Amino acid sequence: MKLDSKIPEGHISQKWTDYKDHLKLVAPNNRPKIDIIVVGTGLAGASAAASFAEMGYNVKAFCYQDSPRRAHSIAAQGGINAAKNYQNDGDSTFRLFYDTIKGGDYRAREANVHRLAEVSGNIIDQCVAQGVPFARDYGGMLDNRSFGGTQVQRTFYAAGQTGQQLLLGAYSSLSRQIGLGKIEMYNRHEMLELVKVDGKARGIIARNLITGELERHSAHAVIIATGGYGNVYFLSTNAMGSNVTAGWKIHKQGALFANPCYVQIHPTCIPVHGTNQSKLTLMSESLRNSGRIWVPKKKEDSEAIRAGKLKPTQIAEEDRDYYLERKYPAFGNLVPRDVASRAGKEVCDAGHGIEANDTNEGVYLDFSTEIQSKGKQTAYAKGNHNPSQEEILTLGKKWLEEKYGNLFTMYQKITDENPYETPMKIYPAVHYTMGGVWVDYNLQSTIPGCFVAGEANFSDHGANRLGASALMQGLADGYFVLPYTVSDYLSGDIRTGKISTDLPEFVAAENNVKEQINKFLSNNGSKTVDHFHKLLGNIMWNKVGMGRNEKGLIEAISEIAALKEEFYKEVYVPGTSDELNPELEKALRVADFIELGQLMAMDALQRKESCGGHFREEYQDSEGETLRDDENFSFVGAWENKGYDVTKSELHKEELKYEFIKIAARNYK
């Protein structure tokens, strides 16, 4: 199979504009004749569904939650990037483009990333028009802050709940179209199969999660916008329902799955507390603007803290190792996520961790310096040029509360510790997945008519995503890319007419789903789905996690194969298929996670280099930084499914060409 990315010719700054000008259109009078299915209603899915309905197409939207408002997009707290240069600090479309390529360790597709940077400003205008309450400065202009991997302030935010506010904006647009009858909304429905007719995506089989009924839905195009696959690790910052099933089903139908080994470990997660924990909580990266990350210099101090004999506030300044500031002076605490995460693991592996958990893993995120600085600044602004220490602390804490209040409240409720008084405890955790379904420049998979948007595709972040770029990509795809590219594809369907769900392809697809469901329900096993999910998570975290090596990856591939066989023999799924059955839902999802986990290990094994979130321990420089191999691995690794045995999957390579950016060693020092 030859991969055609369909990247247009021309200068990088004109590619998208010139390409749009020559795409085919569907006239307004023909759009009501065409049906579109959108699976997933987070930012990418909701914005796409609302856009197509507004244009006049008939849209069916599906989400497994009880409402699109519960999509995991709400968890992206910190902000959304856009190159508007409101701070007048040197930002530009090119700089956002460059920072994203560099942040992804030169493993992203150049043309897609530049398009993302180009449309970023439009996203902010669109969201302001929808009423998203972005923070504003004292003059009324939209405010910005910094995120990891940049030296400018380009992140727009709404306190510590940016994702939620953006999702409400997209949801309001979605709801308007539902009210107008242009969108049929299917809550509590899960896509379990893609239906192809004559090689094209023509519909889905969905399960009503309340009644258990299997439903056939036809369309002229299908858009998958179901997020990432971080829950393959069991413990992650993802919502517990987040899964890979829609993406994996289309993969098994012929869509290639690209760069599955690229997983982002986020540095500011609340550390694992116990073995019965079911998920992890992320503290926003925005906190790295104001917090300083450190561990005690002396191991004995770390041991005393873990034993409860010493408090972090009792550690003198000269006995603290602000290791990110020490190692990366140019970026300090705002280095990219993969760099910060590895540095945190390094100091904990060396015995300086401060959390009293099974692994002694944890570091401090300390706001005391910011409280002092902002307290004095606020006092001066009020005309008090000789404030007392008490006044400084009061004003500094008030400033932090206005900036990050809900995040601090959340942390205190979870840990029962006051982060204004004592430093937060953080440690890296699985967060975002840069890999996903392979798509071309049109965001179309290798299945004609099947498009993939947002985190579900692989296209824009390379081997590491910069903070505040997830929301940007989701909305860019839904509002400003898919309406052009899907319409171009659909221009050939204006005479197709309604697609019947009685076609043999729909019958066969539904029977396939029934067979899998019945197999689980009739299995005479004795172990829960979570039992197998946890075992998979342990293999993935220990051998396909922050640090990987050849021996561990080979073991992981073999261990997951054995786990898969045991899963199908020993899993027990109670209940029936014609009712609300959460264990059945989990079983279907974990079956896909097991196969994906094996492919991730295979992808990591073949990529004999370190880049971004993929860190092979054999490939690092003398200072422990990633050692890329641009000569042999400057490609997108896209895998073709070859049946039940994942190890038989075939690797296809899309060469990455950089015409407008010079590849260099990634340096944040």
Strand residue percentage: 5-15%
The major pleated sheet works out as: 5 strands, parallel
The main sheet orders its strands as: 5-2-1-9-17
User: Number of DSSP strands?
Assistant: 19
Helix content: 25-40%
Give me the Rg, rounded.
25 Å
Overall mean pLDDT stands at 97
Low-pLDDT residue spans: none
The shape, in one word, is globular
* Terminal CA distance: 42 Å
Structural class: alpha+beta
Count of individual helical segments: 17
Q: Can you describe what's shown?
A:
There is one protein chain. The protein is 38% helix and 14% strand. It contains 17 helices and 19 strands. The strands form five sheets. It has a five-stranded parallel beta sheet, with helices on both faces.
Summarize the structure in short.
With 669 residues, the chain is α+β, with helices and mostly antiparallel strands. It has 17 helices and 19 strands. The protein has helices at 15-21, 43-55, 93-103, 110-130, 162-179, 245-252, 299-306, 323-327, 337-352, 368-381, 389-415, 470-490, 504-521, 529-543, 550-570, 582-606, 630-633; strands at 35-39, 58-62, 80-81, 155-156, 183-186, 189-197, 200-208, 214-218, 221-224, 257-258, 263-269, 292-296, 320-321, 363-366, 424-433, 436-437, 450-452, 635-640, 650-655.
